[in-house]
Amino acid sequence: MNRMENPRILPTVPLPGRSFSQGEPAPATIELPPCAGLDWQTVAYWHGWDLLLLGFPWEAHEVWERIWRVRTGSAKSWLQGLIRLAAASVKARSGNAAAVNHHVAGAFDHWRTIPPLELPHQGEILPLLEEWMKPGTSPPPQSVWVLAASGLKSGEPGPNLHPPGDGAVPRALVNALMVAFQRETAPSTAP
Questions:
Q1: Cα distance between residue 54 and residue 52, in whole Å
Q2: pLDDT tens, 40-79?
Q3: Dist CA 37 CA 43 (whole Å)
Q4: Is residue 45 assigned to a domain?
Q5: Is there a domain that residue 13 lies in?
Q6: 159 and 108 in contact (C-beta within 8 Å)?
Q7: What angle is formed at CA 182 by the lines to CA 178 and CA 187, rounded to 5 degrees?
Q8: If you write DSSP's letter for every residue of 158-186 in order, what string do you get?
């Protein structure tokens, strides 16, 4: 399955033409086009997931950081964890396995500060992230990311975290993200 065949949460928001690699000049700010009925923070949050899963980790970090700057409390901690997860994928691109592990551990440190079920889809997403990254997984996703990223050319997206494949997020996580997005953005039926 190639990158464009993977399901997208926000398929109407374009992906960047290339993925940032360390050592290159930082690209211009990622523009977020308006999406019918969605505020900019909702678009940025869900587009960040698309970016991360499709191999644009630096770009995911950038859009999540915009929201992180204006949030407080548990929402800020959740976003900080996602930013750290994206940073882990960026470090995989540079072959730095120690930094990948450091950022993954840091992501979970942020998430552990959040009271259970305080955020709308935390109860579904966090256990799936924990299952995916738990110690003893063979092969550990983090080491697979470094290996997968080792053959990337400058600007080529990756590592692609969509299933199938070693190191990919579990299909259940992708499905849970899609369901959470649909639930969060569905029109209200309240009178």
A1: 6
A2: 888 888 899 899 888 898 999 999 999 999 999 988 998 9
A3: 10
A4: yes
A5: no
A6: no
A7: 175
A8: ----SSSSTTPPPHHHHHHHHHHHHHHHS
